[in-house]
What does this fold into?
Amino acid sequence: MEDLSYYEILEVSQNADKTTIKKAYRAMAKKYHPDKNPGDQEAEHKFKLCNEAYQCLSDDQQRSTYDRYGKEGLQGMGGGRSSGGFDDLGSMFEEMFNGFGGGSRRRQNPADMEKYPLDMNVDISVSFNEAIFGCEKEVTFRYKKACQKCKGTGAKDGKLSTCKQCKGQGQVYMKQGFMTFSQTCPVCNGTGSAATDKCKSCKGLGYDEVKESVTVKIPAGIDTGNRLRVSGKGNIGKKGHRGDLYVTFDVQPDKHFIRDDNDVYIEIPVFFTQAITGETLSIPSLTGELELKLEVGTRDKQRYTFRGEGIEDVHGHGKGNLIAVVDLQYPTSLNDEQLELLNKLQESFGIESKPHEGLLDSAIDKMKGWFK
It folds into this structure.
């Protein structure tokens, strides 16, 4: 079930509104609540996942981050733990289970709770060329591994005492009018317990950091923001379970080609005489050279599209296009011979070389009439 997305865990669609999500959560929490399934560890695990999913999806900010970056994107926001101010989950459970087993709630053993998410993310930079054609890169990263001496608790000899701030609840409550709000205890981070003495080996962190390298095969067409999942290369928890490593890519820009999704743009400098006569030019593409046949009288910024000469879609949905954009160039200075030739050329076109005269004459006559 942990392989499912938060939406799949609650059995709702990704565009579900808050009311639908809350209704689905109530049903799932009631189904898997430990009070209803005494001694059933699988049900207790599913209950935890439902709780984690709801706490994320009921928070607009966390939900937006999760939709874009997945679970690892929530690491800096509490790893899917609610920041408070939405629903008092304790009150919700009391409402759902009032009269059933005395409304009591079972808490997970603090010694079993992880101090960090098992999934992790690493950002890497790749060149434009590497992203377009794919490659293999060695990724070096540091992952967390539960400290063996304190069993991942951060406490000397693994000995924990009840958190004085939340009195072991893991949540602190605030009342505002008739509403009660809860938030994660800032002292114990929701575990309900704290170290009597810090573990000297890990300095109370509860984990050691280990350096590792892995070779990642990058598919052709990868783009900035795309992620690649490397199974079983994430952080290691207290019981030896290891999460996944997510590699997020940042593609460096190219000097000549500009990427727009799977399309590629390239600016082609064209001298004005080439545009006038409609020359055929050789231009670079991603795979070699192409012939660009200019139309007679090509305009500045005119575009020419080469179908299927763009970037291969990373999901295998074909290739984009190459778009050549004309950048019309004019001489910055003329010698006497060039000026004479241009004047002769202009005269050879006759009235066609002065298209402005008829338009401007009528505009001037109209303007004169304004002052009569």
Remarks:
- The radius of gyration is 33 Å.
